[in-house]
From TrEMBL:
InterPro entries: Cys/Met-Metab_PyrdxlP-dep_enz (IPR000277), Cys_met_metab_PP (IPR054542), PyrdxlP-dep_Trfase (IPR015424), PyrdxlP-dep_Trfase_major (IPR015421), PyrdxlP-dep_Trfase_small (IPR015422)
GO terms for cellular component: cytoplasm
Organism superkingdom: Archaea
Chain residue ranges for the region called Disordered: 1-23, 35-57
Cofactor requirement: pyridoxal 5'-phosphate
Keyword tags: Lyase, Pyridoxal phosphate
Chain intervals with Basic and acidic residues compositional bias: 1-12
CDD domains: CGS_like
Protein name according to UniProt: Cystathionine gamma-synthase
GO molecular function annotations of the record: cystathionine gamma-lyase activity; cystathionine gamma-synthase activity; pyridoxal phosphate binding
Gene Ontology biological process: cysteine biosynthetic process via cystathionine; transsulfuration
Length: 387
């Protein structure tokens, strides 16, 4: 389909998806298949071997590229495999500037895998463009950022950050997992590469792990294809199918995620047991103005600080009945977690407090249930645990 002609609600359903030529089947078939017939050596119909390319994966890659407004898309076995592929572009001695609050797995692959291959990383406060600028060195080849960040929903000025990267002849890559292409399109704002964990909102049903890289740069796309084939961290056809099934409803799901999160953020802000709410849609959020400029809405993730101890906050997250106590995010069901003893437990307490991750901080991935049931559930959990 001609992408420029249609809006994202239409592209999410139709891009990369044509009825099967042979049977007319509407849905993309799951091509459970490792190898493909050749008519003569080297003479094939576009596919030879499924690590290199698989038709179900291709349909997903076209669909995701269209959603992100990108020329090219490549899918990987997980969000981490996507991130690994971007790092594969670098060489020993190269330097990377990144955020001091990047996703834990990203921090781990940077420091525990690639520092051993002589890449160097600087972790800075990405909300401060001057701090980004100062961190650049002659050997800086990549600026890696997330926005909104986890778990405090800090907002990074994508256009400003990309300009700095390009002034230094470095690539700007953005992990757009939290916002999704429905809410934010970093390529339009100057980024060179967008990375997604498909495990979250794009899959949307907490039933699949996957990743993707999108770009408008043909050379980068070719390199990503080389690493898909050479490293082999590609998704199978079942996973590709599940994500395709998810992206069809991305716009309607995101509308509800945003609406529910916004209502819960406002309710929390007025609640006497809550000290502080982090949601970019609130005017009290320091990144609100930039978020309004670069996002279409404010997403389904938020966090808040209770006027309570670590133990009391643990009791709250254990007392919810609709919210499930679990890590991860982006599914239709609401999840709740406490970063201090869970997702961010590896960070020493002093360092954690300095970064604003207090003992009583609670993060929620707001699902698409009825908002009154979600607010009622938080209310009963507060009452059960705090009084
Ligand atoms: C989950 C996540 C990842 C990693 O993705 P996986 O699919 O779990 O490998 C990377 N970045 C962000 C922001 C995430 O939330």
């Amino acid at each position: 389909m001609d992408d420029d002609q249609f809006r994202i609600e239409t592209r999410s359903i139709h891009a990369g998806q044509e009825p099967d030529e042979e049977t007319g089947a509407l849905m993309t078939p799951i091509h459970a298949n490792s190898t493909f017939e050749q008519d003569a050596p080297g003479d094939h119909r576009g596919y030879e071997y499924s690590r290199t390319g698989n038709p179900t994966r291709t349909d997903l890659e076209e669909n995701l590229a269209s959603l992100e407004g990108a020329e090219y898309g490549r899918c990987f076995a997980s969000g981490m495999a996507s991130i690994n592929t971007v790092l594969n572009l670098l060489e020993a001695g190269d330097h990377v500037v990144t955020g001091n609050d990047v996703y834990g797995g990203t921090h781990r692959i940077f420091t525990q895998v690639y520092e051993d291959y002589d890449l160097e990383f600087s972790f800075v406060d990405m909300t401060d463009l001057e701090a980004i600028e100062e961190a650049f060195r002659p050997e800086t080849e990549l600026l890696w950022l997330e926005t909104p960040t986890n778990p405090l929903m800090s907002i990074v000025d994508i256009e400003g950050a990309a300009t700095i990267a390009h002034d230094h002849d470095a690539l700007c890559a953005i992990d757009n997992t939290f916002a999704t292409p429905y809410l934010q399109n970093p390529l339009e704002l100057g980024a060179d590469i967008v990375s997604h964990s498909l495990t979250k909102y794009l899959g949307g049903h907490s039933d699949v792990v996957g990743g993707a890289l999108l770009t408008n740069d043909e050379d980068l796309d070719e390199e990503f294809g080389f690493y898909q084939n050479s490293v082999g961290a590609t998704p199978g056809p079942f996973e590709s199918f599940l994500v395709l099934r998810g992206t069809k409803t991305l716009p309607v799901r995101m509308d509800r995620h945003c609406k529910n999160a916004s209502a819960i953020a406002s309710w929390l802000e007025d609640h006497p047991d809550v000290d502080r709410v982090y949601y970019p849609g609130l005017e009290s959020h320091p990144g609100h103005e930039i978020a309004r400029k670069q996002m279409n809405d404010f997403g389904g993730m938020l966090s808040f600080e209770l006027d309570a101890s670590l133990e009391e906050a643990s009791e709250v997250v254990s007392a919810t009945e609709v919210f499930t106590l679990a890590e991860s995010l982006g599914g239709v069901e609401s999840l709740i977690e406490q970063p201090a003893p869970m997702t961010h437990a590896a960070i020493p307490r002093e360092e954690r407090l300095e970064a604003g991750l207090t003992d009583s901080l609670i993060r929620v991935s707001v699902g698409i249930e009825h908002v009154d049931d979600l607010i009622g559930d938080l209310e009963q959990a507060f009452e059960a645990a705090l009084n």
